Amino acid sequence: MKITNYLSKAKLLSVSFLLGGVAVASAHDGPKPRFIKEGKWRGEFTVSESKVPFNFELKGKDAEHATFTLINGSRRDDFHVKSIGRDSVYIKMNTYDAALVAKVEDDGSLTGEYRSLVPGFRGNSLPFKAEYGKTYRFVEPGKDVAPTADLSGKWEIKTYSKEAVPASIALLKQKGNKLTGVVMTVVGDTRELEGTVQGDEFALSGFTGPSPFIIKGKINADGSLSGEQGFGIYKNLKFDATKKADVELPDPYKLTFLKEGYKKLDFSFPGIDGKQVSLSDNKYKGKVVIVEIIGTWCPNCTDQTVFLSPWFNKNHNRGVEAIALGFEQKDSLEYAKYTLGKLRDKYAINYDIAFGGLADKKLVSQKLPALNKFIAFPTTIIIDRKGDVREIYTGYTGTVTGKYHEDYEKKFNKLLDELIAEPAPETAAVVDQPAHQGK
What region holds the Thioredoxin domain (predicted)? Predict the structure, then answer.
């Protein structure tokens, strides 16, 4: 999904937290600078006319020492804070080209917006407010209503849309009124969501840096669910859901594959270090190669990078190489050097990173014509020592999915161990493969 789509129109903020041209007054001039108070907070985004709650914690008494932590169930995501002028803060969403920009009001509360920083799209935003000392998500303490059902389990979700929507399932856990879980699709997952069940109504929200997500609805008399999913600055979709213990998504190993007649994948793209990156390069010959198609705007791509980067650093000397092929929100190599460079530095990536172009699935299919189709960011392509594609995995299954992630990790390691154990062709370091030799 693209952060550039469905963006709501920005509301102008006070001059004090505009990024450009902020004059920093003298320490002896005017009132004492204000900063976010240490402790736990509750915020609310305004999306159209709906409210999307989120929780965070601030540790540190000033920007130099502060850590801003988003809280979603058991998940924690940390960010740095910068002061702007005397009363405002800027919190970059790490490798996502977006930020929270907010003013510390006289009463200590925060008012601001979640802002896209993508060139050409700046000004698009979601307004929010946040209050100190509130730790609840949806319902204030003491105001809970006894739930009419326990939603723990696996749910098959049917989504209604004019456009094709990937199949999805929800994995939910309920304890009293507290509800946590994740929505899985063939293209990835929502990361961990946190929420509540109140009587015959339920709600879950999540905000980890990319655009906020909310799912809410009603428990029907027959035990099924009906509701709406909101993708923050994206769009809303209505859905029905039925509890079904044996429901599964389509096999992610069978969705993307090479067209008939192809065994290999060929490409050549500019690397963010200035060198061209091609599978025909000598450094890849006779090696097992992992090609990861990603975008820095994509949360599941980040999660996959968090998995792959340390794995690669541990296994590189076994005869493995990897390439991250990034498709970004702006078709600019200079912009990609910035965004993909931030990703490299944040997650200690020691494999090649190349820029493929604009984040568009049709464009990916055009630039990698050996694929039957391109479905999801990320997509993992594993190539053996002979240069043959041995496996393609569509999407990514995050740690919040429990057994699904454990199974993914086991199968990944098993296949890589097998491919690494295979002998390298004797001509691997000598013969260059001609272009278009994949057919």
Answer: 258-421
Helices assigned H by DSSP within 324-385: 333-346, 361-367
Return the pLDDT at 437: 39
Question: Are 360 and 276 within one domain?
Answer: yes
Could you tell me if 270 and 333 are in contact, meaning their C-beta atoms sit under 8 angstroms apart? yes
Check whether residue 322 and residue 365 sit in a common domain: yes
57 φ, ψ (degrees, to nearest 5): -130, 140
Q: What is the pLDDT of residue 349?
A: 98
Q: Which domain CATH number covers 202?
A: 2.40.128.120
What's the whole-model pTM score? Answer: 0.88
Q: How many domains does the chain have?
A: 3
- pLDDT, tens only, 214-262: 999 999 999 999 999 987 655 688 999 999 999 999 999 999 999 999 9
In this prediction, the residues of the chain whose per-residue pLDDT falls under 50 are: 1-28, 429-439
Same domain, 275 and 348: yes
Q: Within a domain: residue 251? A: no
Can you list the pairs that 8-12 forms with residues at least 24 positions away whose Cβ atoms lie under 8 Å?
Answer: 8/47, 8/48, 8/124, 8/125, 8/126, 8/233, 9/124, 10/113, 10/115, 10/123, 10/124, 10/125, 11/113, 11/125, 11/127
